[in-house]
Amino acid sequence: MIEALHDEIDRARILHQPDAPLLRAPQLALLDGFAASRPHLFRKKLRVNPAIFDDILDQISDHPIFTNRSNNPQLPVAIQLAIFLNRAGHYGNAISPEDVCQWAGVSVGSVINCTNRVMVALLELHDRFISFPTPESEDAELSRQFSESRSCPEWRNGILAVDGSTINLYTKPGLFGETFYDRKSRYSLACQVSLFIFLS
What we know:
elongated
């Protein structure tokens, strides 16, 4: 018996038959058609309108993270952005790197690399696109007019921002689990941020 196993290993030189390769059905090519004639399907996959996608692409395309000196070129920036937006726009086990690699037709490592590269490029643009209005800006004046006409006049020179979201939990917590059950029939943590800033 051992002699037969030894002969089989010696002949095949492998101890384990590798798994069959993961099947992939790339659907990235569908996005062009969706953008042109069915933008609601484009939004469903990437969570942005086609025009917004193009604007983001224009802003990040020249970032040095999308260049390398390797013999293996990176994927086009548009594909990397689509992979990132698909992952960022969904949650749960339905958006694991394995699921995205099947959708995009790339490897799991490429999904992770694309996500990381696009995040680096977007975070470096943070301060250019997210800021408070200056006191003399048109947005600040509109805010003052709204405060005087519809809310507390004393808040005229301030900006109040309140936003909240839930952070979904994988499973029901063991301690006081029912208190984490929300209106959307999920277990989650509530997170709310309030901000009031006075403009001079």
